[in-house]
Specification:
With 211 residues, the chain is of the alpha/beta class. The protein is built from 6 helices and 7 strands.
C-alpha cells in the first residue's frame, strides 16, 4: 500500500522502499518529497552472513523489488542491523531475546550497520554506513522496564537511539542518523548520483531561524 501526504505543489521525486516512520521523517528533514512503497521480501539472514553484507544485500533486494513494480520514480531502500562481538543482533522475538541483546550491549561498544541502495534509470548504487555506539552499563531492572515500554519491539538490537533508549548511549562515533536507520550524509550523496535533489520539498518561512 502506498501513502502520500504531500502538498499539491510539491511532487514526490522518490519512492522509499520502507515502511519505517523514522526513515520517512529523515527524508522529509532534508526536503525529499516521496512516496512510501514498502518492499515485501524474505529478510532471513543467510548462514555466516556478516552484518554489513546482510544489510547491503537486503537494501539491494528491497530496491530491486520495488523498481520492478514501479519504474516511474527512482527508488531508495535501506536496512539496518546491530553487530556486537561478531554476533548480528536482529529484531528481538520476545522479552527474553531483548534482554539477551541488551545484556550483550551493556557496558560495551557495538556497530550499527545501515545499507543503502538507490535504483533509477541508472544501474543500482549501494553503500554501507557503519557507526560505533557505546552503551553504559544497564541493570536488569532497566532492561525489563525498557521492554515494558514497547520501544525495543521491532528494533534491531532491541533499542531505539532516538527514543527512550537514548539514555543508554554513552558515545557515538559516526552517523547518528545512520543509527536511526538512514544516514543523511550518505543518503544525500547517493540520491544526487541518481538525479534526486535534496531540499526540493523544504518550504521554509523567510522569518525562520534558530530557536
Amino acid at each position: 500500500m502506498e501513502q502520500q501526504e504531500q502538498s499539491s505543489v510539491v511532487r514526490p521525486v522518490l519512492r522509499l522502499a520502507s515502511a519505517s516512520p523514522r526513515r520517512r521523517q529523515l527524508l522529509e528533514l532534508i526536503g525529499v518529497p516521496h512516496l512510501v512503497t514498502p518492499a515485501d521480501i524474505d529478510e532471513t539472514r543467510r548462514a555466516n552472513e556478516t552484518g554489513p553484507a546482510y544489510v547491503q544485500r537486503l537494501a539491494g533486494e528491497k530496491a530491486a523489488a520495488i523498481r520492478r513494480l514501479h519504474a516511474d520514480l527512482p527508488v531508495l531502500a535501506a536496512d539496518t542491523t546491530v553487530e556486537v562481538g561478531g554476533e548480528v543482533l536482529e529484531k528481538p522475538q520476545s522479552e527474553d531475546d531483548a534482554i539477551r541483546m541488551l545484556t550483550l550491549l551493556s557496558g560495551r561498544e557495538h556497530q550499527v550497520h545501515t545499507g543503502l541502495c538507490a535504483i533509477s534509470g541508472k544501474p543500482p548504487t549501494t553503500l554501507i554506513s557503519s557507526t560505533a555506539v557505546r552503551f553504559r552499563r544497564i541493570s536488569p531492572a532497566e532492561m525489563r522496564a525498557y521492554w515494558a515500554s514497547g520501544e525495543p519491539q521491532g528494533k534491531a538490537g532491541a533499542y531505539a537511539i532516538q527514543g527512550l533508549g537514548a539514555v543508554f548511549v554513552e558515545q557515538v562515533n559516526g552517523s547518528y542518523t545512520g543509527v536511526m536507520g538512514l544516514p543523511l550524509f550518505e543518503t544525500a550523496n547517493i540520491l544526487k548520483s541518481h538525479g534526486v535533489p535534496v531540499w526540493n520539498g523544504a518550504l521554509r518561512s523567510p522569518q525562520g531561524g534558530r530557536e
